[in-house]
Amino acid sequence: MEINNKIIKHYLKNVYFINGTAYAGKSTMVARLAEKYGMIQCQENYHFSVTGQLATPEEYPNICYFEIMKDWQEFLNRSPEEYERWIKDTTAELIEFEIADYHQVAIMLSPQAMSVDRFFDRGDLDKQFLLSQIQQAKDPEQTMKNFRACIERINSKESYEKFKSSGFFTIVRENNESDTREKTLEALAKHFGLE
Length: 195
Description:
The chain is mostly helical and about 200 residues long. About 50% of the residues lie in helices and about 5% in strands. It is built from eleven helices and three strands; from the N terminus they run H-E-H-H-H-H-H-E-H-H-H-H-E-H.
């Protein structure tokens, strides 16, 4: 059965998406928006709980990767090229689940050095879990080096420029010296029409 995009958009009219590069403040803003406006926070990789009910490895092998992977060491030690291909193919598969208008999408970007160097400088559970898995590897130093290369590849200048020129509302995190959370929150709330 084919469902018209207009119908899907109608049911997603109160859903907002924030995408972009690592360490740009996406998770922080999602949490703050949810708290301030009484919204449901779906967290990073929210789609696994939704698509897990609808997606099968045969139809969506990239979305279902965590169901079919051997273990976390396989995940962490893929080549940067394999990691990038998985990210791109997962994005392509998710397009069927995420249909939104301009005012429902925001892009948040940070410079590549910041997104790679500061990737694990956060207390969120996903990052700390990955860090613990790296520390359990046979060669933690090599696994960290490889995973950083993966992060560097998907947060490349090319990816940054694609996001920046996507036509969606974009906020760039230029540095991490000053606290811009309130200003960013206001800009996102205004863009999403929450104010």
